[in-house]
What we know:
The protein has helices at residues 9-24, 61-66, 127-132; strands at residues 58-60, 72-83, 91-92, 103-107, 119-122, 144-154, 157-168. It is an alpha+beta fold. The chain has a five-stranded mixed barrel with strand order 2-4-5-7-6. The protein is globular, with a radius of gyration of 21 Å.
Amino acid sequence: MHPILSPALPSLLRLLFVASLVWILPTSCEKSLLLDDESNEEGSNNDENETPEEVGDTLTVAQFRQIEPGGVVVVKGYIVGYLASTSFSSAVFGLPTETANTNFIMADNMDETNPDQCIAVKLNAGDERNALNLLDHPEYLHQYVAVRGLSTTYFRRNGITEISDMESIEAPQSATVPTPTLQHEPCLIVDGR
Length: 193
């Protein structure tokens, strides 16, 4: 067989694709959970204030669920659990207890419990799964993250595979303002004293 047509070529192309994504796509100064982030070293040309929210193609989970699969995207949301088997009906909104999960699910709300409002992110075996699975890293549950990866059909829905980076980012501020409450019963002060 000709060396250029060897069976290892698809694996090599996949590796080159993922490596080029890491190099080409913008980086962030936020904490990278998957890759060592050396992009903000002294002398770097990257803007230190650039975050995944500033990238034009950053999507919420709801926006991502509406697009056609294909291409590289950045999706932001909360890690809310994982899928225990091969369908969304097996969604677990919590931590695994026995084996490292092969995926996690994201939602726009930290306390989401409806699988229809979630997307799945595949964790490939090896370093990626070791770095991001919820069994070994329970601190990732309910963390607000930006995930960069390949948009594809995963578990028969829009999902993300081939993660090139995942970063912890600042969660959006709540739009609701708490109503102040009185600590004590109101009382009448005679003559203002």
